[in-house]
Structures are given as structure tokens and as C-alpha cells.
Design brief:
The protein is α+β, with helices and mostly antiparallel strands. The chain folds into two domains: about 140 residues, Alpha-Beta Plaits (2-Layer Sandwich), CATH 3.30.70; about 100 residues, Immunoglobulin-like. Helices cover about 15% and strands about 45% of the residues. It is built from four helices and 15 strands. A hairpin with a 2-residue loop joins strand 12 and strand 13. Helix 1 packs antiparallel against helix 4. The two termini are about 30 Å apart.
């Protein structure tokens, strides 16, 4: 059975990466974390889950029976300078840009370095030979949505080496998240509300979409305007603002099932003239 149907670790890491891509060098912490704000005069973001992952409000859950990969081999097939190779496994994505002097082994090792822990995928990534990566699921259902792509043809490919027949429940779940910004900069253009507005304006742009997408996340819906919570902090005013929004990610849970090897039966067409009997046998 799947190790972790909903990856909260990706939610945490992905949102921190997004905030820091918009506000480089900013301190970002998840509540409830102790942080001495009075010793920090810069911009600080705190993140908090207001409602845990749920299929509500959109639903969309499904159940199916399918073959789930348990082992995948990724092979580097070429090394063209300036091109890149990208690998996506179970909602996580990594990319390596090929440098001068790289051969297929160097490209493989560079991609493995990009995948370095924490992978936030319940699987082992192992170098095999001089050009391949073997991916082994920790449990059935931990590997899904595996794809590889090069910016040019003939750079990377993958094969599924082993599968298990599973019953799979999946859904687009949404987590309601609050982001607060804290700052001692009080000017409207520098304070916390401006910092949150800047963050949310990036959510549809390529950098934000790709940063969140690398963790299998997306900001969905139209978030409200930031709420100004500025107040006295001891003897001084502190600029503070809050905004809440939904973050979407895939939840997937799989468990092995037995396959039906053979079906046999008889179909009687009683109103046919003459009466007809059809024997059914799918064969072993």
C-alpha cells in the first residue's frame, strides 16, 4: 500500500521555495515554530495550515484498477551541451542542464545530484552502469506519473521494468493555507501588505508555476486581498498582513489486487428464433 497518499512534506517545502523565489533571502517558517521576531529587522513570512487536505470543495475523487510501476529504469542517451534533461516521478520534477565536457555518465550523475535527498518520493534512486538510474518503489503505489524529457531528441528515455495490478483511489485535494508577512518597514510600498501582494501576483507566472510544480503543487482559485494586521509590537509599530488561499495536489492511494486469469460462462438468447446459446471463454 502507498507509503504516503498526501505528501504534506512537499506542501511545506514547495511553498517555502515559492516565497523565497519571490523574496530571496527572506526568513520563512511554518507555524507553530519558535522564531525570535524581535531580533530580526527584515521581512519574515509565517505559513500555517488552516484546513488539512480534502477533496472538498471540488471533489473529483476516482477509483480505478491499473498496473502501477514498482521499478523504472531511466537511461541517459546523449550529452549535447546547452540542452537539458528532465525527470518527473510521482509529482516531483528535477532538471539538469548539460555542460561542456559532460558525457552520458556526467549527465546521469548531474541528474542524480539534482534528485538528492530529500527526494520527497518514497523510492530509492540508484546509479546503474555508466548511464542509467534505477528507481525502486518503497511500497506499491509510491511510483506513478513517471515521465522523462529532453530539450532535444535522443537525450533521455525510461522503461517500466516491473508492475503490480492495483486498485487505485486518487483525488485532487486542496489544503487551505494562511501566509502572514511581518516587517518593521512601515511605508506602504515596503510593508507586509505590499510583500504579500507581490507574492500573489506571481502565482500565474512561469517561475512560480514551475517552482510549485516541481513539488506537485498549484495555487488555485482567486485569493482575497491581503488583510492588514499592523499593530504595536512593544514600543514600535510592526507592519503585518495575512492572506489565505487553496493549494492543490494529487492524493493517491493504491493497494494490490488479484487479477482474474480466466472467465467462462454461457449466454442464453431466449427470444431468438431459434433459441441460441453462446459459450464464453476468455482462455487461460
Amino acid at each position: 500500500m502507498s507509503t504516503s497518499p498526501v505528501r504534506i512534506d512537499r506542501l511545506q517545502a514547495g511553498l517555502v521555495a515559492w516565497v523565497q523565489s519571490v523574496h530571496p533571502g527572506t526568513t520563512v517558517v511554518w507555524a507553530q515554530s519558535g522564531f525570535p521576531r524581535d531580533t530580526d529587522t527584515g521581512l519574515v513570512f509565517t505559513l500555517r495550515v488552516l484546513a488539512p487536505p480534502s477533496e472538498d470543495p471540488i471533489g473529483g475523487g476516482s477509483r480505478s484498477t491499473r498496473l502501477m510501476p514498482t521499478r523504472v529504469t531511466v537511461q541517459i542517451e546523449g550529452a549535447t551541451v546547452g540542452e537539458s534533461v528532465k525527470l518527473s516521478v510521482s509529482g516531483r520534477s528535477w532538471e539538469y542542464e548539460i555542460e561542456a565536457g559532460d558525457d552520458v555518465e556526467a549527465v546521469r550523475d548531474g541528474l542524480l545530484a539534482a534528485i538528492e535527498a530529500p527526494t520527497m518520493v518514497s523510492a530509492a534512486f540508484t546509479a546503474v552502469g555508466s548511464d542509467s538510474i534505477q528507481i525502486d518503489a518503497t511500497a506499491v503505489g509510491d511510483l506513478h506519473s513517471v515521465w522523462s524529457r529532453g530539450s532535444a531528441d535522443g537525450l533521455i528515455d525510461h522503461t517500466v521494468d516491473a508492475t503490480t495490478l492495483c486498485e487505485v483511489a486518487s483525488a485532487d485535494v486542496r489544503t487551505y493555507v494562511e501566509v502572514q508577512a511581518w516587517s518593521y518597514q512601515l511605508a506602504p510600498r515596503l510593508g507586509a501588505p505590499a510583500a504579500l501582494s507581490r507574492l500573489m501576483q506571481t502565482r500565474r507566472l512561469t517561475t512560480a508555476v514551475s517552482t510549485l510544480g516541481a513539488y506537485g503543487l498549484a495555487v488555485v482559485g482567486g485569493p482575497p486581498a491581503p488583510i492588514d494586521l499592523s499593530a504595536l509590537s512593544g514600543p514600535a509599530w510592526q507592519s503585518r498582513a495575512s492572506i489565505s488561499f487553496y493549494v492543490s495536489q494529487l492524493a493517491l492511494y493504491a493497494e494490490p489486487v488479484e487479477s482474474i486469469e480466466r472467465v467462462r460462462g454461457t449466454l442464453d438468447l431466449r427470444d431468438a428464433v431459434p433459441d441460441t446459446t453462446v459459450s464464453l471463454d476468455t482462455g487461460p
